[in-house]
Amino acid sequence: MKRLMLTVGLCAVLAACATAPTVYGPASGPQTVGFSEYRIEPGRYRVTFRGGPGAPAEQVSDYALLRAADLAIADGYDWFRVSDRYMTQSGQSGGPRLSVGAGGGSGRYSSGVGVGLGTSFDLSGGPQVVQTLEVMMGRGSRPPGSDIYDAREIRRVIGART
């Protein structure tokens, strides 16, 4: 029983080490955690934020908005409109799994029956969420609409949580 508990404990430690935290910063490659953007035309970008395995979808969405706000501020804009957004999820979320097997066989002088019990653990950390926004930026007073954001306010509110 002690050996089983030790094995389970070691698996839990490995699972904690296997997932990198999701932090706000540039992605170092196409499949790595962080933000990237593509300038479509002046004042218009496609912004993507890729969360780490198991990162909450709300955090990934907030970080994509924060990157759009940072781009707007850097380019001298006051607000931005999200004209399109989509979220994808890859990987699986699963906990420990248990399996049972049985088998038997016979030979010339003997026969036997066996029963086995096994378990496995998902060490991936959970699904990976990717948020992509297409944003158009503007100057001056912010027009009305639920999909229009004040860039400095987004920087202040969401940026304080990073």
Give an overview of the whole structure:
With 162 residues, the protein is of the alpha+beta class. 27% of the residues lie in helices and 38% in strands. It has 3 helices and 7 strands; from the N terminus they run H-E-E-H-E-E-E-E-E-H. The chain has helices at residues 2-18, 57-74, 151-159; strands at 34-41, 44-50, 79-90, 97-106, 111-120, 128-138, 148-150. The strands form 2 sheets. Strands 1-2-6-3-7 form a 5-stranded antiparallel beta sheet. A two-stranded antiparallel sheet has the order 4-5. Strand 1 and strand 2 form a beta hairpin. Helix 2 packs across helix 3 (151-159). It is rod-shaped, with a radius of gyration of 24 Å. The relative contact order is 0.23.
N-to-C span: 43 Å
- Work out the strand percent: 35-45%
Computed over alpha carbons, the radius of gyration is 24 Å
Please state the structural category: alpha+beta
